[in-house]
Structures are given as C-alpha cells and as structure tokens.
C-alpha cells in the first residue's frame, strides 16, 4: 500500500508535470497551458480595463455626483468638501475660517478672489485650503488649474498665521 506522501506526489505530478529529467505525465499539454494562460490573461485584462473605465467615467464626462445645495439648482462641486464661504454645507466655525481666509486673500490681492474653500480643524486653529477659480466654461461651471491653490493657516485666536502658496 502506498503512503499518503507518495499518493500526493504522484497526484501532483499528474497535474503539473514531472521534475527536470523525468518523463512528463501531465494531463495538460504545453499547448493547453499556453491557451489557458492566454484566456485568463485576456479576461483579467478586459475586467481591469472595463472596471477602471466604469469607475473613472463620471469624472471625465462632467457628471460627477457631488452637489452643493447652496448653489441653487443641482450644480456639481468638483472637489468634495470644498464650498463657498457662505455655503450652508459649512458649519459656523468653518464658515468663519473660510471668510477670514477670503478677506485676507482679497486684501493682499487688492481685488475679489473667486475660489472654493475647505476648512479643517488643526491643533493650532484652522487650515483653510483654497482652490482658485480661473474661469468658467460654456456651461458656467468653474474651471480650476493645477497649482491654482493655497493654504491659509489660521490661529485659535482667529488671526492669519501664514499663507502657503500652491505648487
């Protein structure tokens, strides 16, 4: 009677083939292995491409699902968590921090600043990330450019500590 180790090794050889220098007793020929590998590779590649395309399409065709309720009729917000300083989506402290950041930036620029703001609480007060609107497209949606942002650091005493420019 064969031992369990011998049975397992003979069963494995029938599936994967023999070792080097031994005759191949595999139930799968090299051609079958290549065909199966090609099919698996093509199916996995197709799944990856279709899944990635499905997940990214809303961002490229302009149908992002984030909506800013303070903007009137449903208008998309391109950066989740960002809003105008007077938006109802901000709590009282976030709105105060965003308004202080806007006032500081407008004073420094000497003109109104068109931007979206995201205020987050830090140990020292607030960090207000500002994304500048560089224009509007034909559908009157805001246009942003890479590097068109800054961060305004606000202390707990509601004074601007520093403005960190974007890249």
Please characterize this protein's 3D structure.
The chain has three helices and six strands; from the N terminus they run αααββββββ. The chain is of the alpha+beta class. The protein folds into two domains: 57 residues, no CATH class; 85 residues, no CATH class. 14% of the residues are buried. About 12% of the residues have low confidence.
Keywords for this structure?
alpha+beta, 167 residues, four-stranded antiparallel β-sheet, 20% strand, single chain, two-stranded antiparallel sheet, 6 strands
Radius of gyration: 30 Å
Q: Could you tell me the strand content as a percent range?
A: 15-25%
Give the overall form. Answer: elongated
Distance between the termini: 75 Å
Provide the structure class.
alpha+beta
The secondary-structure element order is: HHHEEEEEE
Query: How helical, in percent, are the residues?
Result: 25-40%
Sheet having the most strands: 4 strands, antiparallel
Can you list the strand order of the major beta sheet? Answer: 1-2-5-6
User: What is the strand tally?
Assistant: 6
- Tally of alpha and pi helices: 3
Number of discrete domains: 2
What is the average per-residue confidence, as pLDDT, rounded to a whole number? 76
Q: In terms of per-residue confidence, which ranges show pLDDT below 50 for 5 or more consecutive residues?
A: 56-75
């Amino acid at each position: 009677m064969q031992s369990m180790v011998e049975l397992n090794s003979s069963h494995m050889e029938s599936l994967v083939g023999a070792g080097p220098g031994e005759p191949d007793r595999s139930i799968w020929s090299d051609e079958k292995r290549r065909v199966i590998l090609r099919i698996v590779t093509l199916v996995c590649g197709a799944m990856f491409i279709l899944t990635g395309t499905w997940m990214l399409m809303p961002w490229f065709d302009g149908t992002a699902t984030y909506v800013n309720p303070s903007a009137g009729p449903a208008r998309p917000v391109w950066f989740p968590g960002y809003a105008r300083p007077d938006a109802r989506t901000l709590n009282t402290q976030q709105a105060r921090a965003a308004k202080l950041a806007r006032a500081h930036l407008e004073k420094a620029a000497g003109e109104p600043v068109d931007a979206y703001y995201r205020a987050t609480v830090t140990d020292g007060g607030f960090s207000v990330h500002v994304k500048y609107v560089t224009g509007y497209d034909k559908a009157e949606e805001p246009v942003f450019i890479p590097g068109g942002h800054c961060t305004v650091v606000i202390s707990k005493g509601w004074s601007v500590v520093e403005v960190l420019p974007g890249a």
